[in-house]
Design goal:
Strand order of the largest sheet: 1-2-3-5-4
Radius of gyration: 18 Å
EC number: 2.7.7.56
Subunit structure: Homohexameric ring arranged as a trimer of dimers.
InterPro entries: ExoRNase_PH_dom1, ExoRNase_PH_dom2, ExoRNase_PH_dom2_sf, PNPase/RNase_PH_dom_sf, Ribosomal_Su5_D2-typ_SF, RNase_PH, RNase_PH_bac-type, RNase_PH_CS
Number of strands: 9
Number of helices: 6
Protein name: Ribonuclease PH
Strand content: 25-35%
Keywords: Nucleotidyltransferase, RNA-binding, rRNA processing, Transferase, tRNA processing, tRNA-binding
Order of helices and strands: EEEEHHHEHEEHEEH
Distance between the termini: 36 Å
Shape: globular
C-alpha cells in the first residue's frame, strides 16, 4: 500500500488556477496534491546578448522555494548570497524543457522568463514547476498573439513532467515526499503532449533497477503526462 492509499498508477489530485497575479503576462497556481507552485511568465522585448540580431526569441526560467515550503524553515538563498546547486540545476531543467516546446523563430526577438516559486513542497516540485510553467507561458503567448505581435503560434506542443519510482518494490506514479524519500528508484520524465521525451532523470537509491522496471516507469509516466496535458488544456481553454 502507498502511504496515501493511492493506486500504483494513480496521480495526486491536480488543479491549475490561472491569472492569479495582476501584473505578469501569464500566471497560474498549480497544485499537485500538497505540492503548490506559483508560476509567472514575464515578457521582455529583448534577448540575451548572444542572440541579438538573430531574429530568435528565448525562454528561460528561475526557480525557488519559500522558507516555509517544507516542514522546517529554510534560509533564503538571497540571504546566503548564492543559489544552491540544486536550485541552479532545476531552473536550467525548467528552461530546457519549455524551450523544447517552442519555435523560437516564430516567437521573434523577445524573451519570456518563467518564474516558479514553490509555496509548499511535498515531492515533485520540479515536475509541477515545468507543468505549471508551460501554462503560464501559454497565457503569455496568447497575449502576444492577441496583440498581433506574433502571427504564428510559437508553441509547438504541450510540455509536462511527472515523477515515477520504485517504492516498496513496486513501480508507482507521481511520488509524494514519503515515497520519494524512501524510493529505491526515482525518475522524472519530461514529455511533450505528443508523447515524445524531452528529458529523463533516473537514479537508483541504494539498489539498481532493471530494463523491465524502467519500461514500467515509462508507461506510468506516459499515463501521468497525458493526464497533466488534459489539465493544461482545461486550464487554458
Amino acid at each position: 500500500m502507498r502511504p496515501s492509499g493511492r493506486a500504483l498508477d494513480q496521480m495526486r489530485d491536480i488543479s491549475i488556477e490561472t491569472d492569479v497575479t495582476r501584473h505578469a503576462e501569464g500566471s497560474c497556481l498549480i497544485r499537485c496534491g500538497d505540492t503548490h507552485v506559483l508560476c509567472t511568465a514575464s515578457l521582455e522585448e529583448r534577448v540575451p546578448p548572444f542572440l541579438r540580431g538573430g531574429g530568435q526569441g528565448w525562454v528561460t526560467a528561475e526557480y525557488g522555494m519559500l522558507p516555509r515550503a517544507t516542514t522546517t524553515r529554510m534560509r533564503r538563498e538571497a540571504a546566503a548570497g548564492k543559489q544552491s546547486g540544486r536550485t541552479q540545476e532545476i531552473q536550467r531543467l525548467i528552461g530546457r524543457s519549455l524551450r523544447a516546446g517552442i519555435d523560437r523563430n516564430a516567437l521573434g526577438e523577445r524573451q519570456i522568463t518563467v518564474d516558479c516559486d514553490v509555496l509548499q513542497a511535498d515531492g515533485g516540485t520540479r515536475c509541477a514547476a515545468i507543468t505549471g510553467g508551460w501554462v503560464a507561458l501559454r497565457l503569455a503567448v496568447n497575449k502576444l498573439m492577441k496583440a498581433g505581435d506574433v502571427i504564428t503560434d510559437p508553441l509547438t506542443d504541450h510540455v509536462a513532467a511527472v515523477s515515477c519510482g520504485v517504492y516498496a518494490g513496486q513501480p508507482v506514479l507521481d511520488l509524494d515526499y514519503p515515497e520519494d524519500s524512501q524510493a529505491g528508484t526515482d525518475a522524472n520524465f519530461v514529455m511533450t503532449g505528443a508523447g515524445s521525451m524531452i528529458e529523463v532523470q533516473a537514479s537508483a537509491e541504494g539498489s539498481t533497477f532493471s530494463k523491465g522496471e524502467f519500461g514500467e516507469l515509462l508507461a506510468l509516466a506516459e499515463k501521468g503526462v497525458a493526464e497533466l496535458v488534459a489539465a493544461q488544456k482545461a486550464a487554458t481553454a
